[in-house]
């Protein structure tokens, strides 16, 4: 996939930015994972301190998609760790964005996917299986719909209603 720089995308799509069809997430995420730049169609997931459904989704073929997890911003446990990072890589996901924490930072650094999260936390999450897939999520000041596109690089993260042309 051709690389689309987020700054360039903002400069060349002013009308989309003005309309809200293209928007930038507030810069609250830290960069983890090997890919500093990644993009793809979004799969949304809302959970709270429970990552059973995270694993369930990452066990399916990613086909270049990006998993966007609204973990409610919890700072009390990790929703993704080294095993799930490896799984995501093996199943062909382009990346994972977590409104919450991850763990096994050094293992995730070795995974060939993009990972963004608020912070790291050594504690694992609950395993009750509670959460909702493919629902609109509100993250970093932005409403994100399942099926929209995400573009991430060193400058930040963009959400677009449809695929952007390079
Ligand atoms: O299984 C978990 O709760 C998350 C984790 O530590 C991993 O993915 O390695």
Mean pLDDT: 97
Number of domains: 1
Instruction: Tell me which oligomeric state these chains represent.
Output: single chain
Helices and strands, in N-to-C order? Answer: HHEEEHEEHEHEEEEEE
Structural class computed from helices and strand pairing: alpha/beta
Q: Which hetero ligands occur in this complex?
A: oxaloacetate ion
Parts with pLDDT < 50 across at least 5 consecutive residues: none
* Overall strand count: 12
Distance between the termini: 10 Å
CATH top-level class: Alpha Beta
Radius of gyration equals 15 Å
What overall geometry do the principal axes of the alpha carbons give?
globular
Number of helices: 5
The name of the CATH superfamily reads Ribonuclease E inhibitor RraA/RraA-like
Strand content: 25-35%
- Most strands sheet: 10 strands, mixed
Helix content: 10-25%
CATH architect. name: 3-Layer(bba) Sandwich
CATH topology: Glucose Oxidase, domain 1
Structure overview:
- The longest helix has 9 residues, at 82-90.
- Helix content is 20%, strand content 34%.
- The model has no long low-confidence stretch (mean pLDDT 97).
- It is built from 5 helices and 12 strands.
- With 166 residues, it is α/β, with parallel strands linked by helices.
- Bound molecules: oxaloacetate ion.
- The site of oxaloacetate ion has 10 residues, from helix 4.
- Oxaloacetate ion (OAA) binds next to helix 4.
């Amino acid at each position: 996939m051709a690389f689309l720089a987020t700054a360039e995308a903002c400069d060349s799509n002013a009308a989309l930015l003005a309309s809200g069809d293209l928007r930038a997430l507030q810069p609250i995420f830290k960069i983890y994972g090997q890919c500093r730049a990644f993009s793809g169609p979004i799969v949304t997931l809302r959970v709270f301190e429970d990552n059973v459904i995270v694993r369930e989704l990452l066990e399916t073929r990613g086909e270049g998609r990006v998993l966007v997890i609204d973990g409610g911003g919890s700072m009390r446990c990790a929703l993704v760790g080294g095993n799930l990072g490896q799984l995501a890589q093996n199943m062909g996901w382009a990346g994972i964005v977590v409104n919450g924490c991850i763990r096994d930072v050094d293992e995730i650094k070795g995974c060939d996917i993009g990972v963004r999260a608020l912070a790291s936390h050594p504690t694992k999450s609950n395993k009750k299986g509670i959460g909702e897939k493919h629902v609109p999520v509100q993250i970093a000041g932005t409403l994100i719909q399942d099926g929209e596109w995400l573009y991430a690089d060193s400058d930040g993260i963009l959400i677009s209603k449809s695929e952007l042309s390079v």
